[in-house]
Design goal:
2 copies of one chain form a homodimer.
Chain A lengths: L8 H8 L3 H8 L7 H14 L5 H8 L4 E6 L4 H18 L2 E6 L8 H10 L4 E4 L7 H9 L4 E4 L9 E5 L1 H14 L5 E4 L6 H16 L7 E4 L5 H14 L5 E4 L2 H13 L9 E5 L3 H5 L5 E4 L2 H18 L6 E4 L2 E3 L6
Parallel strand pairs in A: 1-2, 1-3, 3-4, 4-5, 5-11, 6-7, 6-8, 8-9, 9-10
Antiparallel strand pairs in A: 10-12
Helix pairs in contact in A: 1-2, 1-3, 2-3, 5-13, 8-9, 10-11
Chain A binds a DNA duplex through helix 2 and helix 4.
Chain lengths: 337, 337
DNA sequence: CTGAAAGCGCTTACAG
DNA sequence: CTGAAAGCGCTTACAG
């Protein structure tokens, strides 16, 4: 296989017998091109293996063709799922996907964002928790007129693209699942309270408890922070405060792993003596031993849709539908069969 | 903070009272500029907050300013450490860091690479295991004259930048560490045999055994594949074949985690009844419970140096020093104190 | 060591 | 719906 000659827009125009402008329009999905000509141009481009030169597009159009995901999440599995979804949508449309970790200053991500925007141009922005809950960030982005999408914003924002699951219903349904398995003494391990989504999961947990015949005194709330270690610690507290608990809902899989490891270490059998369910269906949940029952949200698809809608917005210069809710499902595995 | 006006090379030239060309030379680190003028230009640029327009540079120079890391490694922690190192070096020099997963076809990554190179321009390439062991990939890159760096190549390659630790010595030293702790019955859990580095770690393991007074019959080799699951399975095999083993060296931390979880599940105390050491000092090793004694290699620094040397190579158009060995250290934690 | 001019491959008003 | 011309902000030979 040899490196194919690089063709330019002129070559394509010449081969297709149209003007350069028409070729440009075709590749920018402009509406004003007759279908026949469009097909002709696309055919010639395919035959010649033509790809528009991105730098030239950027320079001439003053657009960057870059979509940036701003995050502050140590969970690399989560991040790489988002990145995969973004990249799928981006490569379909000739865009670049970029991920950038924001470092908070005084509890706000605003400063880190401003610094980034000073250095780099972006055509669209995707925010995930906890950045998607930072109003000062959203304000800056809106001020600049940059189209943006929020993944799992805590409360529905009025503006921008919002892509989410119903965290509350999800928390409720996985708790119902535990209750249906006959557990009478339950515990919830929370994530960070700064993640609005985590609070919603907890609200769902309490809804399920309230709807059941389990008295509140048989239910414990343990403070976690999404880390494996906080799962260890939660189990230790549990041992002291409520040794009779048999069913645990951890607000994410990492804490579920921590809890299980701590339980195994203490000689407790999972799930025979202690059932644990997690949230996210991360690779962890599949590879742990025992494998972990978890509530799955389609992060990859959510990122993909966010990006597609973002590109629509960029192209049409206006936002149409903005709220997108995704369905979840419980993946039943060994930790709570 | 307002968005600062975008200055161009012309503005800088005017303010500094020099020609455009001189400004360009300064920003490209060309040697032929008097130091005084260089400082002048740099000063003006700093005052005005000038940043060269990347698209324009790319278009005019026909360079991409992109350095791509090709990998095929499911370990997202490892990948993000490499990415961080690359990005540090890239942002110092105005380059872009990009990571791309290659999908093997018929045991080779060549095809995936060619497809990528057809779509994107790259100025330099970084390869990590197992891609850094694929000679067909290296050949294609050399054929195109693209500067490249290999992270942890199995055998020292004659050409290109090679950045590595002495895997054999590392394997030996962590095994020595186990032996010094008094263990007489040992096991090694291997990684994938396609990773040359893993084979070296194993060679080091056997060297340490040979240098000790432990008879070979007290030593077991268990086949793993770097995954947590293969750590579980290894422990199960161990239980059947060699229940007296008290010290385990897993070729990476994920397998060490798997082994420990399986041991805890079987009611075995770690480290009291079974000591385990890992390799890589991944976040896992720090957050597991018990925390894991592991051999640390400075992946971040290795990626940083690779990238710096790569950029040197790109700029000077010739490769100077090419072999860089990094030191390792044993991080002692609870799984083998 | 430094300058004036052409050109990289696109898009964008502007006309029609 | 389509075309001819200017221009995006740099770098690159080419001169000197």
């Amino acid at each position: 296989m040899t490196i194919s000659k690089k063709y330019t827009i002129e070559d394509i125009a010449e081969h297709a017998g149209v003007s350069i402008k028409t070729v440009s329009r075709v590749f920018n999905n402009s509406p004003n091109v007759r279908q026949q000509k469009r097909d002709l141009v696309l055919g010639v481009a395919r035959d010649l293996g033509y790809r528009p030169n991105i730098s030239a597009r950027q320079l001439a159009s003053k657009r960057s063709f870059v979509i940036s995901h701003f995050h502050d999440n140590p969970n690399t599995d989560y991040l790489s799922e988002i990145y995969d979804g973004m990249r799928r949508a981006c490569s379909e449309q000739g865009y670049y996907a970029v991920a950038e970790k924001l470092e908070p200053k005084k509890g706000s991500y605003r400063h880190a964002l401003l610094e980034y925007l000073l250095r780099y141009e972006v055509d669209g922005v995707i925010l995930s928790p906890p950045v998607s809950d930072d109003n000062s960030v959203i304000r800056e982005i809106k001020k600049r007129g940059i189209p943006y999408a929020l993944i799992s914003p805590g409360k529905k924002k009025k503006d921008g693209i919002n892509v989410f699951i119903n965290e509350r219903d999800a928390g409720r349904s996985i708790t119902d699942f535990l209750i249906e398995r006959g557990h009478k003494q339950l515990a919830f391990i929370s994530g960070l309270d700064s993640h609005a989504a985590s609070l919603e999961r907890e609200a769902g947990f309490w809804e399920a408890i309230a709807a059941s015949d389990i008295p509140k005194k048989n239910v414990l709330r343990l403070a976690g922070d999404f880390s494996m270690q906080s799962g260890f610690r939660a189990f230790e507290k549990l041992t002291k405060k409520a040794p009779n608990v048999t069913g645990i809902f951890a607000a994410n899989d990492e804490m579920a792993v921590g809890t299980i490891v701590a339980a195994l270490r203490a000689g407790k059998k999972v799930p025979e003596e202690l059932s644990v369910v997690g949230f996210d269906d991360s690779p962890f949940a599949r590879s742990m031993w025992p494998t972990i029952t978890s509530l799955a949200q389609p992060i990859d698809d959510m990122a993909h849709l966010s990006t597609q809608k973002l590109i629509d917005w960029i192209h049409s210069d206006r936002l149409k539908e903005s709220q997108f809710e995704f369905a979840t499902q419980i993946i039943v595995r060994d930790s709570c069969p």
